[in-house]
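## retry 2 of 3
previous attempt timed out at serialization; input unchanged, resubmitting
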Amino acid sequence: MTAKRKGPTRRAALGWLAAGASLLTGRVAAAPASPERRLARLAGSRRAAGRIGRAYLADRGGADLSALMAEIEARTALSSDAVMRLSPDALAARLAVAKREDFERRDTVAVEGWVLSGTEARLCALATLV
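## retry succeeded, writing output
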């Protein structure tokens, strides 16, 4: 015979702890809701990506989100579905290949004295827009 457990289970207690931590910090731990957000998270430090992204966009007179996504998809051969489906490690590996290929093709961009791959600069711009 199994005794009925009194009180919350460990799983319930962990859930309550996570919810409480979210309330205290004002943050909710959730998966990225879009391919744009998922890619933006891979741009690196949010602060640095924002600075580079703003400079990149200013040099080009601005850009819209869909145009940036189209360029990133074309350079990486990743559809929005693939971006959502791949693991973070697999996605980062695909972006690393695209960045290396950009340098080989000389698809580079000078931003604030840095020479970046076109893909990297676009990811930073994307991070400023989402």
